[in-house]
Amino acid sequence: MWFKNLRIYRLTREFTLNAETLNQWLEPHAFSPCGSQDSVRYGWVPPLGRHGNQLVHATNGYLMICAQKQEKILPAAVVNERVEALAQAISDRESRQVGRKERQNLKDDVLLEMRPQAFARSRLHFAYLSPRSNWVVIDASSASAAEELLENLREAIGSLAVVPLSAKNLPQQAMTHWLATSQAPAQFDFEHECELRNPKDSGSVIRCKNQDLCAQEIQNHLLAGMQVYRLGLVWRDGITFLLDDQLALKRIRFSSELLEKADNTNADGAAERFDADFSVMALELTALIKDLLKALGGASTELASVEEIVAKASSGQADTVARAVKEVTF
What is the pTM of this model? Predict the structure, then answer.
């Protein structure tokens, strides 16, 4: 359950659903396995797995949810080989070439034929909502996986006004300044990894691992105009991670001291164990995110969510109609 990657989103409207109500909204969208002809299924499962039956786990004001995605695995090489064999049989039998559209139809037939026997692969995607901080924190290595979870959550509860968390100072500019001055921000230290890019040439990339980031060699690249797009950081000697230019935290590692802190809660049973881990992790990540935003000049609130844009547009249309009615009336 300990998150390995963070994609953080800012709630632009107050989240008012409690754990019980949120659970009720998620229940109609609970996960069910793929049928014989399904290629993918997505739904909500208990964060506690087989040890729980609630789709929402609440502790200290945080709401943990978990989505399961199941996909049928059909190797492209196997499908293409079968399609090629069928196309060749038609060509030999009818002495003609098989066109692109007919090949696509053959592929559709092959997928229909093979899907019931395909292996199904399942993955769990954890996230938690922090209404007090106005954040949604998702354990996802890619933006597409995080957006998929948010889209399914939005479908389940009807509306979810969120935007990716952003800072007033661009991460790549701040990280470049930190390395150029050999000075990590308060509460942080440099790890031994970074990625440098030339902003004028996307193909110019330098990746450094197990290196002294304050060495002259790194400084020379910065003087040449390269910027830091990924930077390894350690927060309070407790959490190590890789920060990128999208304000995503990757390859998170929790210190043994933090893990022992959760272990020392004398939890009894799987549910209490999960609750202790979740509580310690969420509290530590909340403090980390706040320190990181402080180092980046604070959170930016300029970006509006889709829901806000639609609401403003609707409000503007209503005002226009009201003015038109008023003009006609008087």
Answer: 0.84
